[in-house]
């Protein structure tokens, strides 16, 4: 397992986490949940180990039957509510 110590972009600390990966593949973005990744605590950049990356590619390749995406609002529970 490759160890990433610091972020390439902001040099923040990088720690292992299980994330919802946003994976760019052939011009589309595929979201894959439960992915082991290294995440920068400062900017949130995700790094994947080579075998994990390969696996994400496999999953993305097989997701080409997904033709539609949905959008939905994500509210914060403590958001300010106009009265
Ligand atoms: Zn960073």
Structure, explained:
The chain is of the alpha+beta class and 83 residues long. It has a single domain (1-83), classed as Ubiquitin-like (UB roll), CATH 3.10.20. The chain contains 1 helix and 3 strands, in the order E-E-E-H. It has a 3-stranded antiparallel sheet with strand order 1-2-3, with helices on one face. The longest helix has 12 residues, at 50-61. Bound molecules: zinc ion (ZN). Zinc ion binds next to loops. Zinc ion is lined by residues 7, 9-10, 12, 40, 42-43, 45.
CATH top level is Alpha Beta
Provide the CATH architecture.
Roll
Report Rg.
Answer: 16 Å
Q: What fraction of the residues are assigned to beta strands by DSSP? A: 25-35%
Total helical elements: 1
Total tally of structural domains = 1
Low-confidence stretches: none
Order of secondary-structure elements: EEEH
| CATH fold-level topology | Ubiquitin-like (UB roll)
Q: Kindly state the mean pLDDT as a whole number?
A: 83
Sheet having the most strands: 3 strands, antiparallel
Which geometry do the CA atoms define? flat
